[in-house]
Specification:
Elements: H1 37-40, H2 45-54, H3 56-74, H4 78-127
Length: 128
């Protein structure tokens, strides 16, 4: 079956594209259009990969849930796919929040240590 989005070739039993993760338009068993619910489920695969690169422990959780979405869609378990999609999105946001917090805290500690060394050198220079 050919994907309508990326034109990639897929096995007949697939409901989502191997290449891009987009839903395939027709169910090969019945020959009818797939349920519209498939189009509502997002995998959050790219954000979870980015989260995995920048904040590994929490990004790994987001990545696992985004892969679960793909598995559930392939098994036509759309309710479970929606739940896993919500959890993948939630963990992406948690990872982003923690990453920004740690980045800002690192900058603050760097600046404070820089000014602390500068003030200490001024104090020691005035003593001598």
């Amino acid at each position: 079956m050919k994907c309508p989005y990326c034109k990639g070739k897929n096995p007949k039993e697939r409901t989502i594209c191997i290449s891009c993760g987009g839903p395939l338009e027709f169910d090969t068993e019945t020959g009818e259009k797939t349920d519209d619910i498939v189009y509502d489920v997002q995998t959050y695969l790219i954000p979870s990969i980015i989260a995995l690169v920048f904040c590994q422990p929490f990004g790994l959780i987001a990545f696992a849930y985004s892969l679960k979405v793909i598995v559930f869609i392939n098994n036509k378990q759309y309710d479970d796919a929606k739940r896993a999609s919500r959890l993948a999105k939630r963990w992406c946001w948690i990872t982003l929040t923690i990453g920004i917090f740690l980045f800002v805290a690192g900058i603050i500690l760097y600046v404070l240590s820089f000014f602390g060394i500068a003030i200490l050198s001024v104090i020691l220079g005035s003593i001598e």
